[in-house]
């Protein structure tokens, strides 16, 4: 097990990069989690993470007070986020950076456990 003690949280500018965005979306599709289950998983993993979350400049990333308020109640956004074209690329691009950031943090935490 490769437990990490610190995660560097991606900035909006980093999340806008095509390769970064596409990779987050691809990894989320591989999780095969429902739109409701993914929010529960984010909550469980982020609040269960004992390491530090830092911005690239070294300042602390403050976890949202409530993960559930970051997503719409039904989280239909996530279903749209996962859609791909016939070429395997995202069907659309979201600018919901806080949501994408939370997904990326989840993916980094999960990667540290494998």
What order do the helices and strands come in, and which of them pair?
Blueprint: E1 6-8, H1 12-16, H2 18-31, H3 35-48, E2 52-54, H4 76-82, H5 97-113
Parallel strand pairs: 1-2
How would you describe what is shown here?
With 114 residues, the chain is mainly alpha-helical. The chain has one domain (6-113). The chain contains five helices and two strands. It has helices spanning 12-16, 18-31, 35-48, 76-82, 97-113; strands at residues 6-8, 52-54. The protein has a two-stranded parallel ribbon. Helix 2 (18-31) packs across helix 5 and helix 3 packs across helix 5 (97-113). It is globular. The model has no long low-confidence stretch (mean pLDDT 90).
Number of helices: 5
Structural class: mainly alpha
Largest sheet: 2 strands, parallel
Question: Helix and strand string, N-terminal first?
Answer: EHHHEHH
Instruction: Quote the beta fraction.
Output: 5-15%
Q: Radius of gyration from the CA trace?
A: 14 Å
Major sheet: arrangement of strands: 1-2
Name the poorly predicted regions: none
Oligomeric state as shown: single chain
Terminal residue distance: 6 Å
The tally of strands reads: 2
The overall average pLDDT, rounded, is: 90
Specify the overall morphology.
globular
Q: Percent helix among the residues?
A: 40-55%
Structurally, the number of domains stands at 1
């Amino acid at each position: 097990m490769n437990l990490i003690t610190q995660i560097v949280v991606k900035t909006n500018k980093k999340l806008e990069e095509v390769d970064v965005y596409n990779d987050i979306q691809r990894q989320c599709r591989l999780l095969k989690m429902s739109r409701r289950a993914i929010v529960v998983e984010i909550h469980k993993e982020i609040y269960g993470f004992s390491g530090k979350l830092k911005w690239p400049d070294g300042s602390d990333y403050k976890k949202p007070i409530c993960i559930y308020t970051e997503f719409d109640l039904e989280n239909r956004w996530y279903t749209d986020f996962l859609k791909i074209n016939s070429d395997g690329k995202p069907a659309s691009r979201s600018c919901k950076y806080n949501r994408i950031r939370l997904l990326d943090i989840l993916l980094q935490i999960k990667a540290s456990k494998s």
